[in-house]
Specification:
Elements lengths: L12 E4 L5 E5 L6 E2 L8 H11 L11 H14 L9 H9 L7 H17 L2 H11 L6 E2 L1 H9 L8 H9 L13 H17 L5 H9 L14 H12 L3 E3 L4 H18 L6 E8 L4 E6 L20 E2 L5 H10 L8 E4 L18 E4 H6 L3 H11 L1 H11 L8 H4 L9 E2 L1 H20 L30 H12 L9 H6 L5 E6 L5 E7 L3 E8 L11 H13 L15 E7 L13 E7 L11 E6 L18 E6 L3 H10 L23 E5 L4 E4 L11 E7 L5 E6 L2 E7 L3 E4 L4 E8 L5 E9 L1 H4 L1
Parallel strand pairs: 1-5, 3-4, 20-26
Antiparallel strand pairs: 1-2, 6-7, 6-14, 8-11, 9-10, 12-13, 13-14, 15-16, 17-18, 19-21, 21-24, 22-23, 22-25, 25-26
Helix pairs in contact: 1-7, 1-8, 3-4, 3-5, 7-8, 8-9, 11-20, 12-14, 12-18, 17-18
Length: 761
């Protein structure tokens, strides 16, 4: 009986690029280079195979009596077995019945089963079974593997000489194969070429050229251009299969070269791993996938596919938060966001430079990647809602509830993969592309993740997670990347082509990120150590961004996005604060904003103040002649924000003081604030090595910079400060209230608790 399944051999795992060129392959579980079964046979190979093995293949029913008779006569006259007379169908049966003896009885079984094979399979299917399972010397099995191992090309590109060689190799695979008895093998190949020429299969020039081709020295190593991509495919269900991927083999080669070049420099700083992912935005497919440095080695976890490994995201989520706030009409692009030292119970965000602006425009906070404004924006948006937004966008690594991450989520307190992050940014790019082309269809591709397969994209989302106008302003902020003075050259470098780009650095300098976006491509880069070791120079701007721009240089010219006019509206905004203008705005601009931005509030920072005619004092009608009052619109920041803002903005003017005798004012102003500690803070005073308790430093600010402040702890006077309002104290464990009073009798109180060592434990 013919078995239901002839072959159950394990296959190698193979991935090809979009041209059909081999990217990488992994040997089958039984140690054989056996590629999955061929789908079609090239004409030259089929002609050569039939000429050599079975000229009457298409005319016999599985057994050729003439060939059997000729083989018997040759064996009898030679007194040894020199020919088996087997048809290709019989050889398929023999290959499927592994290890059977070459006896007369076995030959009869093969003949019987070959006839059944012909009844079950078509002639072309039988040829493909033979070509897929025939031995080609050593541990090379099947035509596909043989073509790549001996000639480094797919079977469809074989020459006549190469096709003829592969046609004869299965005849004596253990005795004759490239690298072993080459003279006899060359003679055998050329005799087959002669027969093909005599039969008219090739012309004389082709025949002479074919004979002149040398034999390969032996099997070569197969290409391993995308090992991590291959591993990911194998883990995703493609083990033992051929994946015809969307990857561009030429680009993959060049990305690997750039990756190795950067690795040569990075490893001198103790940075051993890096990954690059290139996505085609419009086709939504992977163009290059380098999961790690090819030369990093096993000692530095070179086998780890960092593209799929969760790592701290650093600042990569900031543009997504900015777009989300715009999307819901909570801010405008230029809305002022507080940028002052901020303290929470177990979290004290700091800007990378440890400097603060007091307030900063929202888009500039993204361009400069400022941490404190980002935390303030997340507090405004709500971290539970942002947690869900990220999941909606496709961030698959947020496996804990929102409270687990809290506000630190925006500064790398959550982990993400390069795969997820690059795809999210690619989805944002498609949102703008599709909006510009007016392709509003039910198969909207915005946030569906890229396909590995070289086939038509199948969308799995119908609506975008962010509107085009929000994405537009997010990309504008990313395009206008601003760096400190020492990194000023980056702005010139990045402007070589328009790329919206964002870097990220995780806590402890463990991860450096860079993602760049254009209408055509997304390039995502991660740099670091796979074992999580941090290094001082491991930042996104220094380690990852140069690699990202070098990869962009490998890509064709790119364009820039068109503004989504249908989602924009012209509005009048306050120039200084970025809010919608109010009657108290001193200067205004007419700009485009998202339509939803019309629901935002007017500027809360401008107030109308009444001054005396010298404009040195604030007055009111109760203490100053009404006819002499000068009215002005004034930018009034809260005391803490003003303290830092005026250090960088000398044009900012404090409010004039009240004129003596003018106790009543229409302004409701906060005249002072505490910088540290926060309200109801729980503080622990460490004990030094000598057993002495350290001091806590309290810091306050007043709207009038040169004023004297008087400090009280639990209603006990402890001293005064002038100009710089800092005071050091050693409060005992327990609850306390600190009170500050200015010369005009204004008071400020703050509650705090000092923890004892026991309560801390």
């Amino acid at each position: 009986m013919l078995p239901k399944e002839l072959f159950n051999d394990p296959f190698a795992t193979v991935v090809n690029d979009f041209r059909g060129e081999l990217l990488s392959a992994r040997i089958a579980d039984d140690g054989q280079w056996r590629f999955p079964e061929v789908e079609a046979l090239p004409e030259k190979y089929e002609v050569a195979l039939l000429m050599f093995e079975d000229q009457h293949f298409y005319r016999h029913p599985g057994v050729n009596p003439l060939a059997i008779g000729r083989a018997l006569w040759q064996n009898l006259t030679a007194s040894e077995t020199v020919s088996g007379g087997s048809t290709i169908s019989m050889q398929v049966i023999r290959l499927s019945r592994k290890g059977k003896s070459r006896s007369v009885k076995e030959k009869l079984v093969e003949m019987a089963l070959a006839t059944r094979l012909e009844l079950r399979y078509s002639k072309s299917s039988i040829l493909k079974l033979y070509a897929s399972h025939a031995p080609f010397g050593g541990n090379t099995v099947g035509l596909n593997a043989a073509a790549w191992r001996y000639f480094q090309r797919p079977p469809k590109n074989l020459s006549w000489a190469e096709a003829a060689l592969l046609a004869i190799l299965p005849n004596q695979p253990s005795l004759l194969f490239p690298g072993k008895r080459n003279e006899k093998l060359l003679d055998k190949r050329n005799r087959l070429l002669q027969r093909l020429y005599n039969a008219g299969a090739m012309d004389e020039i082709s025949f002479e050229l074919a004979k002149a081709e040398p034999l390969p020295d032996g099997p070569a190593r197969l290409p391993q251009k995308a090992d991590h991509f291959l591993s990911y495919l194998a883990q995703s269900g493609a083990k033992g299969k051929v994946t015809n991927s969307s990857v561009d083999g030429f680009l993959q080669d060049r990305v690997n070269s750039v990756l190795n070049a950067h690795h040569a420099l990075l490893k001198t700083d103790g940075i051993h791993n890096a990954a690059v992912l290139v996505l085609d935005v419009k086709s939504n497919q992977v163009m290059a996938y380098a999961g790690n440095v090819p030369e990093s080695g096993s000692e530095h976890a070179g086998a780890v596919d960092v593209i799929q490994a969760p790592r701290s995201t650093g600042s990569l989520l900031k543009p997504l938060l900015y777009a989300s706030l715009l999307d819901e009409g909570l801010i405008l692009p230029k809305t002022l966001i507080p940028d002052v030292p901020t303290f929470y119970t177990d979290f004290a965000p700091k800007n990378f430079t440890r400097k603060y602006d007091g307030v900063v425009h929202a888009d500039m906070a993204i361009s400069r990647s400022l941490n404190v404004p980002a935390v303030n924006m997340l507090k405004m948006y709500g971290y539970p809602k942002f947690h869900q937004k990220l999941r909606d966008l496709g961030m698959t690594t947020l496996n804990n509830p929102p409270g687990f991450y809290g506000l630190s989520m925006i500064l790398g307190g959550s982990e993400g993969t390069l795969w997820d992050m690059a795809n999210i940014y690619a989805g944002m790019s498609r949102t703008l592309n599709n909006h510009s082309s007016r392709r509003f269809t039910t198969d909207y591709q915005g946030y569906a993740f890229a396909s590995f397969e070289s086939k038509d994209f199948e969308a799995n989302r119908e609506v975008p997670s962010l509107n085009a106008s929000s994405v537009w302003f997010a990309f504008k902020a990313m395009l206008e990347v601003y760096r400190p003075a020492e990194d000023a050259s980056w702005k010139l470098y990045s402007s070589a082509r328009k790329v919206a780009w964002k870097t990220g650095t995780s806590f402890g300098y463990r991860d450096g990120w860079a993602i760049g976006v254009t209408p055509e491509y997304v390039v995502g880069v991660w740099v670091g150590n796979a074992d999580g070791e941090g290094r001082p120079g491991l930042t996104g701007i220094k380690a990852a961004a140069p690699l990202m721009f070098d990869v962009f240089d490998l890509l064709p010219e790119t364009t820039w996005f068109k503004p989504p006019k249908s989602e924009l509206v012209t509005a009048i905004v306050d120039r200084e604060t970025g809010f919608l203008s109010s009657p108290y705005s001193a200067k205004v601009d007419t700009v485009e904003i998202p339509k939803v931005g019309l629901r935002t509030t007017t500027s809360p920072y401008h107030q109308r103040v009444h001054l005396d005619k010298t404009e040195r004092f604030r007055v009111n009608a109760g203490c100053y002649p009404l006819k002499d009052i000068v009215t002005k619109n004034w930018l009034v920041l809260p005391p803490k924000e003003a303290e830092y803002y005026k250090k960088k903005n000398p044009m900012y003017l404090d409010l004039p003081p009240l004129m003596p005798g003018c106790e009543d004012t229409s302004l409701s102003l906060m005249v002072m604030d505490m910088i540290y500690p926060q309200e109801n803070a729980a503080l622990y005073i460490p004990i030094a090595q000598d057993g002495v308790r350290s001091e806590l430093v309290f810091e306050a600010t007043h709207r009038e910079s040169d004023i004297e402040l008087f400090w009280h702890l639990d209603d006990v006077y402890i001293g005064s400060t002038l100009s710089k309002h800092e005071i050091s104290l050693k409060p005992s464990p327990g609850d306390h209230i600190i009170t500050i009073i200015d010369p005009e009798g204004n008071q400020f109180k703050r509650k705090f608790r000092v923890l004892s060592k026991e309560s801390e434990e």
